[in-house]
Amino acid sequence: MDAPESGRSTIPIPHARPRTDFDAVIVGAGLIGLAAAWRAAQRGLRVALTDPEPGSGASHVAAGMLAPVTEAHYGEERLLRLNLASAARYPGFVAELEDVAGTPTGYATHGTLAVAFDTGDRAMLADLAAFHRRLGLASEPMTGRECRVREPLLSPDVQSGLFVPGDHQVDNRLLLAALLTAIAREHIALYRERAAELVVTHDVATGVRLADGQTLHADHVVLAAGCHSTSLPGLPSGVLPPIRPVKGQILRLSVPAGAAPFLNRAVRGVVRGRQVYLVPREHGELVVGATVEEQGFDTQVTAGGVYELLRAAHGLVPGVGELPLTEVRAGLRPGSPDNAPILGPTDLPGLIAATGHFRNGVLLTPITADVIAETLATGQPPQTAEGFEPQRFSEKAALT
User: Fold this and answer.
1) 149 and 270, same structural domain?
2) Which one of 57, 131, 251, 354 is separated from 228 by 20 to 30 angstroms, measured CA to CA?
3) Does residue 329 sit in the same domain as residue 251?
């Protein structure tokens, strides 16, 4: 054993952290986890990811809509600002990613058309348009006829619409593939194992124990496992609020090769009070979704869910009935108590949250990645994350 250097104390430091293998271990390799790892590695950090099936969760099932305006809801103005900020980062984000990965992401900027089917739906859409005007958001009211000029296959029963030029789309599966390539090129360690336990040493998160028994020691642990984030064994009670799974059933149909485009852009509709969206892909796929079901961790596809989606889609675009049905899936959105993301350091030192994105996980991928990378690199989340800290729930509880 080498002798200690002159003048350096040999007395052990109480509660010293073990030597770490990584600056950060990220639990979860969906879009959020992959993008955060990529951005953190670009800042020179040693990063590891752990996920038994990278890219297979809600990120894989999603439709890829980037719709901060048509997804705007009353009382969620703070979330709207975050959504808009992330949407503004998307062009640069995908351009850089496509350059690194050498593959497309399916990012398209054709806008989104929201349409109404009957008188009640028309009133809901008019109310949404008024909300947009009050917030200064760009959306253009249209008659039913004007809607059909843009999308000729729309039903003659469509009464009105709202064109939103700034609501775009991306192919979430191509985006996942590009991110997996990017992290490989950054030499980010990817462990295809389940995180079995959060390791906490002297009230500090110091790593993750994997299902195969291996322990990954790290200066920080980032929880980015969607609705499974708060069920990680070893997570102390009260550090994070419960993240609930919100089931969404979604369909994929195929447009015949060589046929004219079925739709030119994403179409969102309200059909007799039921919301549905249809998202076309350049390679001929049409994505139809999605139900919103509070059913726990159930991912079983149901006949009723498929029927309701197809009925609503057929009401908007009757030609849907002629398309082959190629895939039916159900995914679980991670919903926080206020349906907004949970971003940044928790009350457990060393533990950082990147979860609770609910409907907006694909949309919020660029800004979440930047927030987590900045937090890991500097110790402080950027101002863009203000209002989405994990502590907001305990503060509300204290006030009540």
Assistant:
1) yes
2) 251
3) yes
Q: Is residue 79 part of a domain?
A: no
Contact 241, 230 (CB under 8 A): yes
Greater pLDDT, 21 or 261:
21
Q: What is the mean pLDDT of residues 180-191?
A: 96
- The answer to whether residue 74 is domain-embedded is no
Report helix, strand or coil for 346.
coil
pLDDT, residue 3, reads 40
Q: Are residues 343 and 322 in the same domain?
A: no
Q: Would you state the structure tokens that stand for residue 148, as one six-digit string?
A: 């059909």
Note whether 116 and 186 are within 8 A (CB).
no
Which structural domain, as residue segments, surrounds residue 307? 112-165+244-335
Query: Which pLDDT tens digit goes with each residue over 52-71?
Result: 999 998 999 999 999 999 99
Number of domains in the chain: 2
- If phi > 0 it is left, if psi is from -120 to 50 it is alpha, else beta; for residue 295 that is alpha
| Domain match, 360 and 219 both | yes
Last residue of a domain, one of 335, 356, 389: 335
Q: What is the CATH number of the domain that holds 236?
A: 3.50.50.60
Strand residue runs (E) in the chain: 22-27, 47-50, 65-66, 112-116, 140-143, 160-164, 168-169, 189-191, 195-200, 205-210, 215-223, 244-254, 266-271, 274-280, 285-289, 325-335, 342-345, 351-355
Span 196-225, average pLDDT:
97
Q: Say whether both 254 and 373 belong to one domain.
A: no
Please give the C-alpha separations between residue 346 and each of 149, 238, 318, 357, in angstroms, as whole numbers. Answer: 51, 10, 49, 16
Q: Where are the alpha helices (DSSP H) in the chain?
A: 31-42, 58-61, 77-101, 119-135, 144-150, 172-185, 303-316, 365-378, 392-399
Indicate the angle between helix axes 365-378 and 31-42, nearest 10 degrees: 40
